[in-house]
Amino acid sequence: METRTVRGAQARHDNQYAMRLSLLVGVLMLVGKVSAYLLTGSAAILSDALESVIHVLAVGFAAFSLYLSAKPADRKFPYGYERIAFFSAGFEGALIVLAAVAIIWTAGDKWLHGLEIERLGTGTLLVAAAAIVNGALGWYLIRTGRRTSSIILEANGKHVLTDCWTSLGVVAGLCLVMITGWLPFDPIVAILVALNIIWSGAHLMYRSVGGLMDYADPDRTSRVQAAIEPLGRDLGFTHHGLRVRNTGYRTLVELHLLFPFAVTLGDAHRRATVLEEHLAKALDEEVEVVTHLESAEDHASVHRESHQHER
Fold first, then answer.
1. Among 28, 168, 225, 304, which is least packed, fewest CB within 10 Å?
2. Domain range 2-212, CATH class
3. Cβ–Cβ contacts within 10 Å for residue 158, how many?
4. Domain boundaries, given as residue ranges, for the chain
5. Do strands 251-259 and 287-295 pair parallel, antiparallel, or not at all (unpaired)?
6. Class of residue 89 by CB neighbours under 10 A (exposed 0-12, middle 13-18, buried 19+)
7. Which pTM was predicted?
8. Does domain 218-310 have CATH number 3.40.630.10?
9. What is the pLDDT of residues 24-77, one digit of tens each?
Protein backbone atom coordinates (compact mmCIF):
# COMPACT_ATOMS: atom_id res chain seq x y z
CA MET A 1 0.00 0.00 0.00
CA GLU A 2 2.89 2.35 0.76
CA THR A 3 4.33 1.99 -2.76
CA ARG A 4 0.94 2.82 -4.29
CA THR A 5 0.58 5.88 -2.03
CA VAL A 6 4.01 7.19 -2.97
CA ARG A 7 3.31 6.64 -6.67
CA GLY A 8 -0.02 8.45 -6.32
CA ALA A 9 1.60 11.41 -4.57
CA GLN A 10 4.29 11.63 -7.27
CA ALA A 11 1.65 11.45 -10.00
CA ARG A 12 -0.31 14.30 -8.42
CA HIS A 13 2.87 16.40 -8.14
CA ASP A 14 3.73 15.73 -11.81
CA ASN A 15 0.19 16.59 -12.93
CA GLN A 16 0.09 19.85 -10.99
CA TYR A 17 3.49 20.94 -12.33
CA ALA A 18 2.44 20.11 -15.91
CA MET A 19 -0.84 22.03 -15.52
CA ARG A 20 0.91 25.13 -14.16
CA LEU A 21 3.34 24.99 -17.08
CA SER A 22 0.42 24.66 -19.52
CA LEU A 23 -1.34 27.71 -18.06
CA LEU A 24 1.83 29.85 -18.19
CA VAL A 25 2.63 28.87 -21.79
CA GLY A 26 -1.01 29.34 -22.81
CA VAL A 27 -1.01 32.96 -21.60
CA LEU A 28 2.29 33.68 -23.36
CA MET A 29 1.01 32.14 -26.61
CA LEU A 30 -2.16 34.23 -26.42
CA VAL A 31 -0.14 37.43 -26.04
CA GLY A 32 2.05 36.48 -29.01
CA LYS A 33 -0.89 35.64 -31.30
CA VAL A 34 -2.84 38.78 -30.43
CA SER A 35 0.32 40.77 -31.21
CA ALA A 36 0.62 38.97 -34.56
CA TYR A 37 -3.02 39.76 -35.40
CA LEU A 38 -2.61 43.44 -34.52
CA LEU A 39 0.43 43.56 -36.82
CA THR A 40 -1.22 41.84 -39.79
CA GLY A 41 -5.02 41.99 -39.57
CA SER A 42 -5.09 38.38 -40.79
CA ALA A 43 -8.34 36.42 -40.36
CA ALA A 44 -6.35 33.20 -40.00
CA ILE A 45 -4.20 34.65 -37.22
CA LEU A 46 -7.31 36.05 -35.53
CA SER A 47 -8.85 32.56 -35.62
CA ASP A 48 -5.70 31.19 -34.00
CA ALA A 49 -5.83 33.89 -31.31
CA LEU A 50 -9.50 33.16 -30.59
CA GLU A 51 -8.67 29.49 -30.15
CA SER A 52 -5.96 30.50 -27.66
CA VAL A 53 -8.47 32.58 -25.65
CA ILE A 54 -10.66 29.49 -25.33
CA HIS A 55 -7.60 27.42 -24.49
CA VAL A 56 -6.59 29.66 -21.57
CA LEU A 57 -10.14 29.50 -20.17
CA ALA A 58 -10.15 25.72 -20.55
CA VAL A 59 -6.77 25.34 -18.85
CA GLY A 60 -8.02 27.42 -15.93
CA PHE A 61 -11.00 25.09 -15.48
CA ALA A 62 -8.77 22.04 -15.95
CA ALA A 63 -6.37 23.30 -13.25
CA PHE A 64 -9.28 23.68 -10.82
CA SER A 65 -10.54 20.20 -11.78
CA LEU A 66 -7.10 18.70 -11.19
CA TYR A 67 -6.98 20.28 -7.73
CA LEU A 68 -10.49 19.07 -6.89
CA SER A 69 -9.91 15.54 -8.19
CA ALA A 70 -6.97 15.11 -5.78
CA LYS A 71 -9.12 15.80 -2.70
CA PRO A 72 -9.84 12.73 -0.57
CA ALA A 73 -13.33 11.33 -0.17
CA ASP A 74 -15.50 12.87 2.55
CA ARG A 75 -19.01 12.51 3.99
CA LYS A 76 -20.63 14.51 1.19
CA PHE A 77 -18.70 12.72 -1.58
CA PRO A 78 -17.86 9.24 -0.23
CA TYR A 79 -16.46 8.13 -3.59
CA GLY A 80 -14.20 11.16 -3.96
CA TYR A 81 -14.10 13.99 -6.48
CA GLU A 82 -12.31 12.26 -9.33
CA ARG A 83 -15.28 12.27 -11.71
CA ILE A 84 -14.70 15.99 -12.19
CA ALA A 85 -12.05 14.82 -14.68
CA PHE A 86 -14.75 13.84 -17.18
CA PHE A 87 -16.61 17.11 -16.66
CA SER A 88 -13.34 18.93 -17.32
CA ALA A 89 -12.68 17.00 -20.55
CA GLY A 90 -16.24 17.63 -21.74
CA PHE A 91 -16.06 21.32 -20.86
CA GLU A 92 -12.76 21.65 -22.73
CA GLY A 93 -14.22 19.85 -25.74
CA ALA A 94 -17.27 22.13 -25.76
CA LEU A 95 -15.03 25.22 -25.61
CA ILE A 96 -12.98 23.88 -28.52
CA VAL A 97 -16.12 23.54 -30.64
CA LEU A 98 -17.24 27.02 -29.57
CA ALA A 99 -13.87 28.43 -30.64
CA ALA A 100 -14.20 26.72 -34.03
CA VAL A 101 -17.64 28.25 -34.61
CA ALA A 102 -16.25 31.69 -33.69
CA ILE A 103 -13.36 31.18 -36.11
CA ILE A 104 -15.68 30.30 -39.01
CA TRP A 105 -17.93 33.28 -38.25
CA THR A 106 -15.01 35.72 -38.01
CA ALA A 107 -13.28 34.42 -41.14
CA GLY A 108 -16.49 34.63 -43.17
CA ASP A 109 -17.24 38.13 -41.90
CA LYS A 110 -13.77 39.43 -42.81
CA TRP A 111 -14.00 37.80 -46.24
CA LEU A 112 -17.37 39.45 -46.97
CA HIS A 113 -16.27 42.89 -45.79
CA GLY A 114 -12.93 42.98 -47.57
CA LEU A 115 -9.49 41.57 -46.80
CA GLU A 116 -6.57 43.71 -45.74
CA ILE A 117 -3.36 42.08 -44.62
CA GLU A 118 -0.07 43.75 -43.67
CA ARG A 119 3.39 42.70 -42.41
CA LEU A 120 2.73 39.02 -43.10
CA GLY A 121 6.36 38.01 -42.64
CA THR A 122 6.57 39.09 -39.00
CA GLY A 123 3.13 37.71 -38.16
CA THR A 124 3.93 34.36 -39.78
CA LEU A 125 7.15 34.02 -37.77
CA LEU A 126 5.31 34.72 -34.50
CA VAL A 127 2.64 32.10 -35.25
CA ALA A 128 5.27 29.56 -36.37
CA ALA A 129 7.16 30.02 -33.09
CA ALA A 130 3.92 29.51 -31.16
CA ALA A 131 3.25 26.29 -33.11
CA ILE A 132 6.66 24.85 -32.20
CA VAL A 133 6.25 25.67 -28.49
CA ASN A 134 2.71 24.26 -28.38
CA GLY A 135 3.77 21.10 -30.19
CA ALA A 136 6.44 20.37 -27.56
CA LEU A 137 4.09 21.26 -24.69
CA GLY A 138 1.22 19.15 -26.05
CA TRP A 139 3.46 16.10 -26.41
CA TYR A 140 4.69 16.56 -22.83
CA LEU A 141 1.16 16.96 -21.42
CA ILE A 142 -0.24 13.89 -23.21
CA ARG A 143 2.77 11.79 -22.22
CA THR A 144 2.46 12.85 -18.57
CA GLY A 145 -1.31 12.40 -18.56
CA ARG A 146 -1.09 8.86 -19.92
CA ARG A 147 1.70 7.95 -17.50
CA THR A 148 -0.32 9.19 -14.51
CA SER A 149 -3.74 8.06 -15.87
CA SER A 150 -5.02 11.66 -15.79
CA ILE A 151 -7.70 12.30 -18.43
CA ILE A 152 -7.67 15.98 -17.38
CA LEU A 153 -4.04 16.39 -18.38
CA GLU A 154 -4.38 14.23 -21.49
CA ALA A 155 -7.38 16.28 -22.67
CA ASN A 156 -5.46 19.47 -22.05
CA GLY A 157 -2.51 18.10 -24.02
CA LYS A 158 -4.76 17.26 -26.96
CA HIS A 159 -6.17 20.77 -26.85
CA VAL A 160 -2.63 22.19 -26.93
CA LEU A 161 -1.81 19.97 -29.93
CA THR A 162 -4.98 21.20 -31.59
CA ASP A 163 -3.68 24.73 -31.03
CA CYS A 164 -0.38 23.65 -32.62
CA TRP A 165 -2.09 22.26 -35.73
CA THR A 166 -4.20 25.41 -35.92
CA SER A 167 -1.05 27.53 -35.94
CA LEU A 168 0.62 25.35 -38.56
CA GLY A 169 -2.46 25.64 -40.77
CA VAL A 170 -2.39 29.41 -40.35
CA VAL A 171 1.31 29.50 -41.28
CA ALA A 172 0.58 27.43 -44.41
CA GLY A 173 -2.24 29.78 -45.40
CA LEU A 174 -0.15 32.90 -44.89
CA CYS A 175 2.69 31.41 -46.91
CA LEU A 176 0.23 30.75 -49.75
CA VAL A 177 -0.93 34.37 -49.57
CA MET A 178 2.66 35.65 -49.71
CA ILE A 179 3.54 33.33 -52.62
CA THR A 180 0.41 33.85 -54.74
CA GLY A 181 -0.82 37.25 -53.58
CA TRP A 182 -4.39 35.84 -53.44
CA LEU A 183 -5.86 37.13 -50.14
CA PRO A 184 -8.82 34.68 -49.89
CA PHE A 185 -6.35 31.92 -48.98
CA ASP A 186 -6.29 33.56 -45.53
CA PRO A 187 -9.99 33.02 -44.54
CA ILE A 188 -10.17 29.70 -46.41
CA VAL A 189 -7.37 28.26 -44.30
CA ALA A 190 -8.99 29.68 -41.16
CA ILE A 191 -12.25 27.84 -41.96
CA LEU A 192 -10.46 24.57 -42.77
CA VAL A 193 -8.56 24.78 -39.49
CA ALA A 194 -11.84 25.39 -37.63
CA LEU A 195 -13.40 22.26 -39.12
CA ASN A 196 -10.45 20.22 -37.84
CA ILE A 197 -10.87 21.80 -34.40
CA ILE A 198 -14.55 20.77 -34.31
CA TRP A 199 -13.56 17.12 -34.79
CA SER A 200 -11.06 17.31 -31.92
CA GLY A 201 -13.57 18.96 -29.57
CA ALA A 202 -16.32 16.47 -30.44
CA HIS A 203 -13.95 13.58 -29.67
CA LEU A 204 -13.19 15.01 -26.21
CA MET A 205 -16.90 15.39 -25.47
CA TYR A 206 -17.51 11.80 -26.58
CA ARG A 207 -14.83 10.55 -24.17
CA SER A 208 -16.32 12.66 -21.40
CA VAL A 209 -19.81 11.20 -21.85
CA GLY A 210 -18.34 7.69 -22.03
CA GLY A 211 -16.53 8.17 -18.73
CA LEU A 212 -19.55 9.64 -16.94
CA MET A 213 -21.72 6.76 -18.19
CA ASP A 214 -19.13 4.12 -17.17
CA TYR A 215 -18.67 2.99 -20.76
CA ALA A 216 -16.85 -0.36 -20.86
CA ASP A 217 -13.25 -0.06 -22.02
CA PRO A 218 -12.28 -3.43 -23.59
CA ASP A 219 -8.55 -2.67 -23.56
CA ARG A 220 -8.50 -1.74 -19.86
CA THR A 221 -10.66 -4.75 -18.96
CA SER A 222 -8.33 -7.05 -20.90
CA ARG A 223 -5.30 -5.69 -19.04
CA VAL A 224 -7.01 -6.25 -15.68
CA GLN A 225 -8.07 -9.76 -16.73
CA ALA A 226 -4.52 -10.60 -17.82
CA ALA A 227 -3.15 -9.36 -14.48
CA ILE A 228 -5.67 -11.36 -12.40
CA GLU A 229 -5.10 -14.74 -14.11
CA PRO A 230 -1.58 -15.49 -12.76
CA LEU A 231 -2.54 -14.17 -9.32
CA GLY A 232 -5.52 -16.54 -9.30
CA ARG A 233 -3.28 -19.53 -10.06
CA ASP A 234 -0.83 -18.55 -7.30
CA LEU A 235 -3.48 -17.80 -4.68
CA GLY A 236 -5.81 -20.69 -5.52
CA PHE A 237 -9.01 -19.01 -6.72
CA THR A 238 -11.07 -18.56 -9.85
CA HIS A 239 -13.26 -15.56 -10.52
CA HIS A 240 -16.30 -14.24 -12.36
CA GLY A 241 -18.40 -11.08 -12.51
CA LEU A 242 -15.42 -8.86 -13.38
CA ARG A 243 -16.36 -5.20 -13.86
CA VAL A 244 -13.86 -2.45 -14.57
CA ARG A 245 -14.37 1.30 -14.75
CA ASN A 246 -12.18 4.36 -14.65
CA THR A 247 -12.72 7.55 -12.64
CA GLY A 248 -10.35 9.64 -14.75
CA TYR A 249 -7.61 9.05 -12.18
CA ARG A 250 -8.05 5.54 -10.73
CA THR A 251 -9.18 2.18 -12.05
CA LEU A 252 -12.00 0.59 -10.03
CA VAL A 253 -12.22 -3.21 -10.18
CA GLU A 254 -15.08 -5.35 -8.88
CA LEU A 255 -15.08 -9.16 -9.06
CA HIS A 256 -16.28 -12.32 -7.34
CA LEU A 257 -13.58 -14.70 -6.06
CA LEU A 258 -14.37 -18.42 -5.88
CA PHE A 259 -12.37 -20.45 -3.32
CA PRO A 260 -12.55 -24.16 -2.47
CA PHE A 261 -15.16 -24.87 0.21
CA ALA A 262 -12.47 -26.06 2.64
CA VAL A 263 -10.72 -22.66 2.63
CA THR A 264 -11.62 -20.75 5.79
CA LEU A 265 -13.14 -17.28 5.59
CA GLY A 266 -10.06 -15.80 7.23
CA ASP A 267 -7.71 -17.43 4.71
CA ALA A 268 -9.91 -16.39 1.76
CA HIS A 269 -9.91 -12.82 3.05
CA ARG A 270 -6.12 -12.89 3.38
CA ARG A 271 -5.70 -14.11 -0.20
CA ALA A 272 -8.16 -11.50 -1.49
CA THR A 273 -6.12 -8.80 0.26
CA VAL A 274 -2.96 -10.07 -1.41
CA LEU A 275 -4.77 -9.83 -4.77
CA GLU A 276 -5.85 -6.25 -4.08
CA GLU A 277 -2.30 -5.18 -3.19
CA HIS A 278 -0.58 -6.98 -6.07
CA LEU A 279 -3.05 -5.91 -8.76
CA ALA A 280 -2.01 -2.26 -8.42
CA LYS A 281 1.63 -3.25 -8.85
CA ALA A 282 0.88 -5.46 -11.85
CA LEU A 283 -1.05 -2.69 -13.63
CA ASP A 284 1.34 0.06 -12.44
CA GLU A 285 -1.47 2.51 -11.76
CA GLU A 286 -3.87 3.60 -9.02
CA VAL A 287 -6.31 0.71 -8.53
CA GLU A 288 -9.12 0.13 -6.04
CA VAL A 289 -10.39 -3.45 -5.84
CA VAL A 290 -13.68 -4.63 -4.33
CA THR A 291 -14.05 -8.42 -3.99
CA HIS A 292 -16.97 -10.70 -3.11
CA LEU A 293 -15.90 -14.06 -1.63
CA GLU A 294 -17.75 -17.22 -2.64
CA SER A 295 -17.42 -20.97 -2.33
CA ALA A 296 -16.63 -22.59 -5.67
CA GLU A 297 -18.67 -25.73 -4.94
CA ASP A 298 -22.03 -24.17 -4.03
CA HIS A 299 -22.03 -20.59 -5.28
CA ALA A 300 -24.51 -21.39 -8.07
CA SER A 301 -27.03 -23.00 -5.72
CA VAL A 302 -26.67 -20.17 -3.18
CA HIS A 303 -27.49 -17.62 -5.90
CA ARG A 304 -30.53 -19.67 -6.99
CA GLU A 305 -31.83 -19.77 -3.42
CA SER A 306 -31.29 -16.03 -3.07
CA HIS A 307 -33.30 -15.35 -6.25
CA GLN A 308 -36.12 -17.60 -5.03
CA HIS A 309 -36.35 -15.67 -1.73
CA GLU A 310 -36.49 -12.37 -3.65
CA ARG A 311 -39.56 -13.58 -5.50
1. 304
2. mainly alpha
3. 23
4. 2-212, 218-310
5. parallel
6. buried
7. 0.64
8. no
9. 888 888 888 888 888 877 767 777 787 778 778 878 887 887 788 778 878 888
